[in-house]
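User: Need the bound-state model for pyridoxal-5'-phosphate:
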Amino acid sequence: MSAMLPQIPVAKPFLDEEEAEATRRVILSGWVTQGPEVAAFEREFGEFVGAPHACAVSNCTTALHLALRAVGIGPGDEVITVSHSFIATANAIRYDGGIPVFVDIGSNGFNIDPDLIEAAVTPRTKAILCVHQLGMPCDLTRIVEIGHRLSIPVIEDAACASGSEILWDGVWQKVGRPHGDIACFSFHPRKVITTGDGGMLTTNNAEYDRKFRLWRQHGMDVADTVRHGSRQVIYESYPELGYNYRMTDMQAAVGRVQLKRLPTLVARRRYLANLYTESLGDISWLETPVEPAWARSNWQSYCVKLPPWLDQRATMQVLLDKGISTRRGIMNTHREAAYANPASHRISGKLTHSVTAQEGAIILPLFAQMTDDEVRFVADVLRDMCSDRRTATA
Ligand SMILES: *Cc1c(COP(=O)(O)O)cnc(C)c1O
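Assistant: Bound-state model below.
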């Protein structure tokens, strides 16, 4: 079977001896979960994005759950978001009985259209959960302005956006500073840096951070590091309902190495994304992604839009036959069976662009180890498809 694997995967984590060595060090230290490595990873990640508080958790879905709980989402509360996202975005809203309210993405790119947010607001709106889809920052300046004006907290689903930057008050800043109230990151292998699984919450709000730390560890009011380091007997208590959303120290140790690599990985991805845009530039029917003036993507994914006359599945098959793995456009949560019950969500306006993007876009391979020649090869296969078609329809 392995002989059948595509030569060019759609994504590939960058992991090396240094990560392997880091886990070895932790394993032999004897402290393997939510200990000194997690604390160090939190400190370093917070410094990297410029956030005063960073709290590590088991993944970004649990991060989103805690963020939504912190701003008080409960039964019947509405959270404005996009359907056009990985399903975890909306699922997290439903965990405590919240109702995702889906608005469309813009016609350019793959992020929420800020013009549609206010029409979706009702007296039950308790948060805006915006997504930096594919690593491309959404229009946060406008979204945060709306949030402030209407006193609605803004949570950023920054799952894909480690290392992405946003122009804020005329200064380039890292996504996660945070610019909304809370930002949530993922370290799944499909993202730019990975800990196997893992997540991080960043905030300026010390009270939120205190709650994250309480809830991620069963609602226990004493951290293990404190109890173990104490010279006096401490009895813990459990003032609130909590969860087990811990990150292990093996994961955190890998995360620290990955974080050191992040600037280099992003620089490489930016280079490859530019090379794609250049190499695909002469294909008139293909729409390549563009960074808005306020955004510097980490290029977690490079997603192109196909013309309506080109079949998505057939295009992906042609590429796969040449050993090139791709993915279709980002899913639409409202089209999944888990959302068949109309009470599970609300749709505000039409989701035309969301559906078009799912059905008419494809994600091309992009990973740090990819060579220039591989990028040009993908572009050549796409270009040939176009000339084939011109011949076929002539
Ligand atoms: C990957 C992803 C998530 C989920 O992250 P996990 O760490 O796998 O839980 C949530 N939202 C978006 C937009 C994602 O891409």
